Sequence to fold (460 residues):
Amino acid sequence: MPSCCAVIGSITYALKGQRLLASFNIDSRVIKVRSAGTAGGCAYGLEFDCINSDTVAALLRRGDIPYRDIFRM
Amino acid sequence: MIYFDNAATTYPKPRAVYDAVLRAMTEAGGNPGRSAHRLSMAAADIIYDCRCELAEFFGCSVPENVVFTYNTTYALNIAIKGLVSRGDHVLISNFEHNSVLRPVAALASRNVTYSVFDARGSTVEVLNSIKSLVRRNTSAIICTHVSNVCGLELPIAEIGEYCASRHIAFIVDAAQSAGVRPIDMRAYNIDALCIPGHKSLYGITGCGAVIFNEKYRESYIPFSPIIEGGSGVDSLNIGMPSLLPERFEAGTLCVPAIAALLAGMREVRRVGIDKIAQHELKLKAKLCELLSEMPEVELYLPSCDDESRPGTGVVAFNIKGKPSSDIADAFAKRGICVRSGFHCAPLAHKALGTGPDGAVRVSFSMYSSENEVRAFATALHEIIAEG
Fold:
């Protein structure tokens, strides 16, 4: 399955997001997002199975975890 | 050796703390928040675990509001210089450490003025002292939870309630209380709680934290950092990130110290802070009983007449006519560690009326024992007899 990435920003929110997703049995991996893909430069993101995109977006919003974008890797 | 200087830093630490430091250095040796490789992520995980547990321990629902600093002083500087604005008036107590007094005094350059309330007496008396000093432009009350000189506990729940009713920010210096007195930021209406890692939370020196109330979120961080630098995020922007905690965490964090804090806090939770507090207060009562039998000894014990504020296991005293530094030196020669002088708290010493050389401070930890207290009293008898 293709991987998607939620661009989050800080390592703190990335870890918070990872643990939130894990509590809903969604596996994810913290990665550094390509600098060119983020407006401000360095950022962390969460890599996950694209099949979960809608759920991940909803969970991150509900968990007050600010994310900038979700894109297919 | 007898170590009774735990108010400065606790010693020894729990075994788990030493193990955690070694593990952090050997298994999590990367730079947290800078990369995503295994060692960097292992370090980041430790830090995030510590944020989560600190937030829970102190009644804050959002771990990202835990900002790591080098120590309590840095934490207080961030909170005070952030939450107090030009032209404001603030209140501090007459038992403040210089970590509060000096940053507040330095704000005179921003036309900030301050008044000092009396923290002695009953809760009602303390609140009356505060109310008599509050002005229209009073923006913050900044106070210690427990005095580092004598263990006097301030009524922070009631002060916090008053602050909330007047929309006054409440900044608490918990250097002496974190880990030995219960603190609930939400219940006590604390805006910023400043804690050390290396005292009653049994971590090592090198890290502290300021925990901001959960009301301070992305949309409402009305203040600037006092230190700027690398944060590992938004590197192309010239300003610091807007989000907590990175906004206030410029530069690399001390991972081994944060790992130690996490391990120490877990040990405190395992033992139980009530049990630790009772143990230390029992030792304090025993020591005071022994000292009060010595007419040459002057004890400095402010009473608060409130059982809900038992304070901590700290005792200040002098031998009449003998400089405190000489007394501490005499103890040191006998292998007993205590601290003399003014303990960076000139207001407290003035309030207590100690000598021109300050006082001797004895402070316990969960590892102190009654046998050590008795040995201390015996040594004190010898020192008095020496003249």
